[in-house]
Amino acid sequence: MRVRADGGGPVTRAAIWIGTSFKMNKTRAQSVAYARRLRSEVGGGVPGVRPFVIPPATALAEVTEVLGAEGPVMTGVQNAHWEDAGAWTGEISVPQAADAGARIVEIGHSERREHFGETDHTVRLKAEAALRHGLTPLLCCGESAEVFARGGSGDHVLRQVAAALEGVDGAERALVAYEPVWAIGERGRAPRPEEIAPAHEALAAEWGGRVAGVLYGGSVSPDNADELLGVPGVDGLFVGRAAWEVEGYLALLETGRRRAGAGA
Fold this sequence. Notes:
- By secondary structure, the chain is α/β, with parallel strands linked by helices.
- Helices cover 39% and strands 16% of the residues.
- It has an eight-stranded parallel beta sheet. The chain has a two-stranded antiparallel ribbon with strand order 1-2.
- Helix 1 runs parallel beside helix 2 (60-67), helix 5 crosses helix 7 and helix 7 runs parallel beside helix 8 (193-207).
- The radius of gyration is 17 Å and the shape is globular.
- The two termini are 14 Å apart.
C-alpha cells in the first residue's frame, strides 16, 4: 500500500496519478473554463485515478474553487519558495500557495533548473517547505540527451531524488516525476517504452515504497499513454501540451481508468 498524498488514508498501487501543468499558458478565464468543463465531466472523480491540475498561479484560487478544495481533482502550484515569508520579491511561499488552494507543489522542473538557477540544494529546501506545511511536493527529475546516450539515466535521476528527499521527514508523501530533458517541450521526442524503463526500474527499486508515486512525463499523448503506463515502475503520468485542451486530458483520464480497472 502507498500513503495518500492528501493524508486521507492508503491508496493501492492501482490508483494511477494523471496530472497536467499549464506552464505559462492560459488566462484566468481560460483556466476557469477548463476547470468547469472538467468538473462537469468528472465531478465525482475517476475510478482508480488520482487527477491533478496545476494552473498558472494567477488562476489557482479560482480553479480550486471550481474543482473543490477537497474535491477529487487536486490543484497545485508550479513553484514555491522555501521561506514562509520575507523580502523575496516575485516569489510565492508555500503558505500562500496553500491559502490559494494548492495541495501539490511542483519542484525542480528542468526548465527551472536551466533558466532560473534551481539547484539540488534549493530543490531540497522547497521540498522540505512543502512537506512542512502538509502539501505534496511533486519532484521533477530527468537527464539530458548526453547522459541518456551514455546510459547514465538511472544513476542521474537517483542522485537528483536523493539530493531532494533522502532523510527528509514526510518524504513518503512526495511524488516523483521522471521527465527526461530530451523528451519534454516542443522539441522533445516521444520515448519508446524501453528507453524510459531503466530510469523507472532504478526509481522503483530505490523509491517505489518510499514515496506516494513515481510518474512519467515527456511527450505524453493519448496515443502513447497506455504503453507508457505499462512500463514497470510507472505509477502515473505528468502531462504537458496534450492535456492543455480538456478533451486531451479527459482521454488520458480514461486511459488511466482502463489501466486501473485492469489491475495495472
